Amino acid sequence: MGKRQKLRSRLIRDFKLNKYLYLMMVPVIAYYLVFFYGPMYGALIAFKDYSPMKGILGSDWVGLKHFEDFFGSFYFLRVLKNTILISLYTLLFEFPAPILLALLINEVRRKKFKRVVQTITYMPYFISLVVICGIITDFTNADGLLNRLFVFLGYDGQAMLQKPELFRPIYVLSEIWQRIGWESIIYIAALMSIDLEQYEAARMDGASRLKQMIYITLPGLLPTIMIMFILRMGNLLNVGFEKIILLYNPVTYETADVISSFVYRKGLLEFGWSYSSAVGLFNSVINLVLLITANTLSRRATQNSLW
Amino acid sequence: MKKFAAAGLIITLLGALMAGCSSGDKSSGNAAEGASSAGAAEPTTYPLKTDEKLSYWGEINGNLVGVKASHDEIPFFQKWQEKTGVKLEFTAPPSGQVKEAFNVMLASGDLPDMLEYNFIGDFPGGPEKAISDGYIIKLNDLIDKYAPNLKKYLQEHPDIDKMVKTDNGSYYVFPFIRGDEYLRVFQGPVIRKDWLDDLGLPVPETIDEWTTTLRAFKEKKGAAAPFSVVSKPRFFNESGNGAFIGAFGVNRGFYQEGGAVKFGPAEPGFKDYLKLFHDWYAEGLIDKNIATADTKAVDGNIASGATGATVGNAGGGIGKWQPLVEANDPKAVLVAAPYPVLKKGDKPKFGQMNQAYASEGTVAVTTAAKDPALAVRMLDYGYSEEGHMFFNFGEEGVSYTMEDGYPKFTDLLMNNPDKLAPAQAISLYARSSYNGPFVQDKRYAEQFFALQTQRDAVEIWKNTDAAKYNLPNITPTPEESSEYATIMNDINTLVDEMTIKIILGSEPVDKFDDYVAKMKSLGLDRAIEIQTAALQRYNSR
């Protein structure tokens, strides 16, 4: 009892002292309430048969029907598997790529060359996704650029986007191509903050360039890598549906169809608003769990964490 | 996904806000209806005298993409407002995303006064559900009172009247009607006649002749993709109507035979079709990129001479490709080939043949309409004598001239000074080359099909039994519709996957029976049951 009283009086005193600071917080809190927490009640429609004319509150409750429909769907396991696999492959191959690029760029001594490399690698990030997918489709056609190259090297040319087993490699590789330069910027920035004296000292002790990279650069980069990794885990199941939809076709459904593209076909084209929000909710919950797990593991292992 | 979820949340929020507003609108709409019904007896004279502005949601015709950006810039839509005396405020969905945009608009609850949409083909649950969910209004009373022209037409054409109603007898849109049988067939196989002549081959009629022909195209004409069809949005898009599949007695959807409803991809004939196309693909007679072939790719193949046979429309197909092939090879001629059969002399069971009432391009009045009576009177214009000429041919003296009682398109349309193709120029001044709330006139097509090969094509493609086997525009009841949609969504995905995998050879033809078993386990029988019931209801309308 006494403790609570103490806290209250402390709060009141603090409020009196800093009332303008508190006042300045109001718009920010309001912003989050209105634009982020307010709309959350829309998630209710996942448990209702939503009809816009009846409104969110007026629609009929159906309980977990939409979740059951999704889990019971003929395609549920395949879609879940594809989502996880594509995410994992992206994490495995696309996540380290910008780190490697940053390390390589860091080793380049010529400033001009460095800049050219950086510009060229981050350009694709600014091209519209529709154009990117058009380029990918053209390159992988039966008589596209890539196939001509393979034929030149003595392999058979084939329409690659018609091969289910090639969909994931194409997706992941193009993902690397799109993002490597852009994502390396943050690592390059982190490299700048490493104390140059450490390198000097290491050189005095006779460490080679490779040794310097392993014992000074990498540890210096680790906090950034961990934070980026945790953030990435929070998005693990969010495979961009735009790119999938632009690249897939029925023949590659078995490896390409992910939760979001499935929901797009089923929800947006078939007017299943409630169904899509049920799946979206499911997706978000999994992501939240992954984020918390990654954060906890990272805090225990490396003392780096988001919170 | 994040964007998608965020958009979803915003939409739902908007939906909640709008739901409140629209219920208010509804009552005011009813009030207006009641008020103006007093003066109902007087016949409509155009232009109507009103200061009200109505809002109108509809797609801009694909022919005009890249020519005009909005309805307001298109002479037809300006004139339409002038002629009817009703000012319109247009909203257009982005081309190619009509369904998505429509969906988002509905979810927002912010409806315009009028909606131009395909309520049978693209509205899950069909028109009756659109009415019962409270998006659009039942028009029966309003048509009785304010739409004398449409009413007269429907009374004179009971067969069409049956099509434009729901099972319950509700009118829900101002329909697009193909006024002549000639206008109902416009798609079929297309082939390079000059190559056939060079090779001394006849226009192929049977599947065997097609095999010989395609082989000759590949070996003697160097065609890299002898046969190619657009596969977007669905694989073998244009073949869905029965081209080649029809030879085996099935199509890709539901059809009726001997009083029973059947699903083509689950019938044995479909297996034979898959086997044939598998063999053709393995032999290199079909485009290697067939799974990803879009309009652009097929156009390119035909223009460059990589493809010698396809399936396409008389207007947008032959009409579009003929100049393209000629540019590369002055001798090139594209002609229509009949829908293939197995035995010479047989009549193909399927082919493209639309219903006289095509459900696209129809206009509904929404529950949010401020003055439904005014909207109805405005829409009725298209079925009046004056409106008929205006919708089909545009304005006299500008886009057509009367010659011995025959409306002849002017050079502005047929030889456009801005180098627009006739299909594009007509779309600027009239709606006859696509659709809309009016009755289409045969005389437009006689001129639109400028080439003799196009006019012949319709006659050649017409010769099928499609009218007998195709299902009419039937709809499940609102109760059945979500069940039906769920089943068919899964089955169609399966069919698309099966078709292409077997044809490309990543699954053996013998897997077909497994696929059929899988369709059954997904509820095919129940879907057929729903379709059968809908057909019975239709027949007893």
TrEMBL record, chain A:
<dbReference type="InterPro" id="IPR050809">
    <property type="entry name" value="UgpAE/MalFG_permease"/>
</dbReference>
<keyword id="KW-1003">Cell membrane</keyword>
<keyword id="KW-0813">Transport</keyword>
<feature type="transmembrane region" description="Helical">
    <location>
        <begin position="84"/>
        <end position="104"/>
    </location>
</feature>
<dbReference type="GO" id="GO:0005886">
    <property type="term" value="C:plasma membrane"/>
</dbReference>
<dbReference type="InterPro" id="IPR035906">
    <property type="entry name" value="MetI-like_sf"/>
</dbReference>
<feature type="transmembrane region" description="Helical">
    <location>
        <begin position="214"/>
        <end position="231"/>
    </location>
</feature>
<dbReference type="InterPro" id="IPR000515">
    <property type="entry name" value="MetI-like"/>
</dbReference>
<feature type="transmembrane region" description="Helical">
    <location>
        <begin position="273"/>
        <end position="294"/>
    </location>
</feature>
<protein>
    <submittedName>
        <fullName>Sugar ABC transporter permease</fullName>
    </submittedName>
</protein>
<keyword id="KW-1133">Transmembrane helix</keyword>
<dbReference type="Pfam" id="PF00528">
    <property type="entry name" value="BPD_transp_1"/>
</dbReference>
<feature type="domain" description="ABC transmembrane type-1">
    <location>
        <begin position="80"/>
        <end position="294"/>
    </location>
</feature>
<comment type="similarity">
    <text>Belongs to the binding-protein-dependent transport system permease family.</text>
</comment>
<feature type="transmembrane region" description="Helical">
    <location>
        <begin position="176"/>
        <end position="194"/>
    </location>
</feature>
<feature type="transmembrane region" description="Helical">
    <location>
        <begin position="21"/>
        <end position="47"/>
    </location>
</feature>
<keyword id="KW-0812">Transmembrane</keyword>
<dbReference type="GO" id="GO:0055085">
    <property type="term" value="P:transmembrane transport"/>
</dbReference>
<keyword id="KW-0472">Membrane</keyword>
<feature type="transmembrane region" description="Helical">
    <location>
        <begin position="116"/>
        <end position="137"/>
    </location>
</feature>
UniProtKB/TrEMBL annotation, chain B:
<feature type="signal peptide">
    <location>
        <begin position="1"/>
        <end position="19"/>
    </location>
</feature>
<protein>
    <submittedName>
        <fullName>ABC transporter substrate-binding protein</fullName>
    </submittedName>
</protein>
<dbReference type="InterPro" id="IPR050490">
    <property type="entry name" value="Bact_solute-bd_prot1"/>
</dbReference>
<keyword id="KW-0732">Signal</keyword>
